[in-house]
Amino acid sequence: MLKLRTALCLALIVGTLTLLNGVLQGARIETIIYRIIVSIAIFGFIGYGIGLIVERFLKNIALKKLEEKSQRDELKENEPSDDVTENSEFAPFTSTSFEQITRPKE
């Protein structure tokens, strides 16, 4: 989407400048229209190329930041937690451990 927006904006800016330049120079209407069409086509392709390059560049930056974030998250998971002692044992609650629960006697 960035490619198309860049191409459209660049083409419209150049087309407007071409129109103003043609009017200020007193060119015929056919000449102005021809120049506008050529300018919009050329700079539309150039804008699309610029948008393509910028989009790839931003995507690479986003992927690098995502990888760094996942690496930081992995490091945090591997670090021992301060509130859990090393001697405490954790056993998940399963159907076999359900039988080991003792009920208080009255």
Automatic annotation (TrEMBL):
Q: Which domain of life is it from?
A: Bacteria
Q: Does the keyword Membrane apply?
A: yes
Residue ranges, annotated region (Disordered): 69-106
Regions that span the bilayer: 32-54
Q: Which UniProt keywords apply?
A: Membrane, Transmembrane, Transmembrane helix
Bias type Basic and acidic residues, positions: 69-79
This protein is called Lipopolysaccharide assembly protein A domain-containing protein
